[in-house]
Amino acid sequence: MPYTILRSGFLMEVWLSPMLGFDPLNARAEIYGTGEQSIRWISVLDVARYAVASLENPYAIGAVRTLTGPEPISPRQVIGLFEREGRSIFEVTRVPVEALQRQLQDAADPLQKSQVGLKIAYASGEPPDRESALGAFSTRLRTVADYARYVLSTFTK
Predict the structure, then answer these.
(1) Could you tell me which of 4, 57, 126, 139 has the fewest CB atoms within 10 Å of its CB?
(2) CATH assignment at residue 33
(3) Sheet harboring 28-32: ordered strands across?
(4) Most confident among 49-53, 55-59, 149-153 (mean pLDDT)
């Protein structure tokens, strides 16, 4: 049976949303670690397009593919981008890695451990040599700037 396993990076619609402490409409952000680590944020829409395109692409059949966004950008740079687009200064709360590690030790169940583990991965950033399988397809990927313009134009008063 043909298969493709897709491993996506950090989804901007999830990690850059109020659900995980990033609230652009109220100019507040929680960042994990220093906020200087590079992350190749990817749009869930690009992951969905890749999933559909991979059905008939020989590069994807029988493979495990990692999907990352088009550019490395740190959480601090993301905040700066949203501040420029929305013309407001963010209130930023930083959660040190040490605090996350304590949360991991104190986690009561596997779901809590998983959630904190993902935040620790965010605080570590992505390895700089990590290549995205999306390069095998000729499609323009959504950038964090695209996402910021969309969020701020769609949901602001």
Answers:
(1) 139
(2) 3.40.50.720
(3) 22-23, 28-32, 91-95
(4) 149-153
